[in-house]
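Predict the 3D structure for this chain.
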Amino acid sequence: MNNNNYSRFIPLITAISLIVGLLIGSFYANHFTGNRLSIINTSSNKINDLLHIIDDQYVDKVNLSDLVEKAMPQILSELDPHSSYTSAKDVEEEMQDLKGSFPGIGVVFTIYSDTARIIRVVRGGPSDEVGLQAGDRIVTVDGKNFVGKMLTDDYAISHLKGPKGSKVRLGIRRPGVKKLLSYTVVRDNVPIKSISTAYMVDKTTGYIKIDSWGDTTYPELLVALAKLHQRGFKNLIIDLRGNRGGFMAPPIRIANEFLPKDRLIVYTQGRKSPRSEYTSDGRGSYQTIPLIVLVDETSASSSEIFTAAIQDNDRGTIVGRRTFGKGLVQEPIQFPDGSMLRLTIARYYSPSGRCLQKPYVQGKESDYQMDLLKRAEKGEYVSADSIHLSGKRYKTRLGRTVYGGGGVMPDYFVPEDTSGVTSYYIEAASQGLLAQYAYIYVDYYRNRLNKMDSWTDMVKYLKKQNLPDKFANFAATKGLKRRNLLLRKSYHIMQRTLINLILNDFYDTDVSQMYLNENDPNIAKALEIFRAGKAFPQAPAKRAHKVVKRPVKAIKARR
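Done. Predicted structure below.
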């Protein structure tokens, strides 16, 4: 067919195409009406197509909203391990730690024997103001029964939390008091501290434990530093062990306090995100103080930003074990219903140019989450020789070698203390029995413990109480068979754990952390480095090149 004959049929072909298009459009208009979205027959809209077809033709009635809620995390898991979806009901709870407060009554409680029991009353909080005490049992809320099998953590939280300014009437059973006590509590914002501990380890060394990176972390740090300054600290330990991350701004602002002017702290870059650099402004008040940062395998994300900035700029010394290895930046995107998408939009890079993100395979999130267990199986926590980094080499400002592609490797490795860890101890801890016994002990002996002059006196007393043996008797009633040989092997670690938990329940996390630090090899190593004057890293010694003198005749022979 020549071009002239073909052109004669173009109007006819066009008309037929239009008619077919109208028929198809009419078919879909009749089958997908009401609240259903229009279907566009492209591969990018297969999910919409699928939902419409299910809604229209599936044998049973389907709740599409629930289906979408379940599908969202599965879709994101195919991208990377850190892109995530959070339902509306969980967003508020997840953001509390980062925002630094939540509206509530201001108590820490546990549910034991179907009763909500107050472990600790937040100082200065709503419950403290009306006179609630540690050890109180909450038995009614707004006149309704608050005990029994229906009392779960979620149920209790949903009834005790509420909008700021709202009131809740609590019926309280107090040990030693026969009548039911009644308190009306006006809910208020209860602070959540991101810095749990700040104190002087010795006469010259300050210690600060940062648990998370939230809106209040930077001002909390300034307050902690000011208090340590009043006590004359000359060295500083910042403990990031167990800190899984948070917002990106706080570690940048805090790193700025320690770095000279114009030092790169971190930069981010992604396919749709141009390179953004964050540098120090030289206004930090602590640019010359000897600094040591403690890390472990659970130090992640924002903690790694701060750690790498200090290491790459040779500003301080890193002590502990290799960090988690998260180098992906998530952008929070909120949906109209309050749910939130956290989508990975970029990678962050340390000043030397390394990305600390450990390797992952798309869609293999379970393998990624098992990484820390695999490290343990390989012996990485007890031997530095077992650590294998996949990343290439980078150089710090002074020319020291650091590695990318798998977290921050500390300058000084401190192995995990596994002495005394037995299957009996692991079972007792994993079942929550150690924590249960600690609570029962504090609850039963509260009046006796109240007579202690200090936490150090309490520790001396508790060490004489044969706590591991008493625990074993308690655990046996809960189904954990007593094993005397393993109990003897685990005696010291079990005693230390129980004392720590008792201090945490009776006082707070700051006291329990101070107790743990007394025999912490990481703290001991940090103090050793300070005493040796090695907190500031030194440039590696240059290798002397050996000059080989050749015989003059041999050189002439080559000419």
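Residues 1-7, 9-41, 552-559 have pLDDT under 50 and may be disordered.
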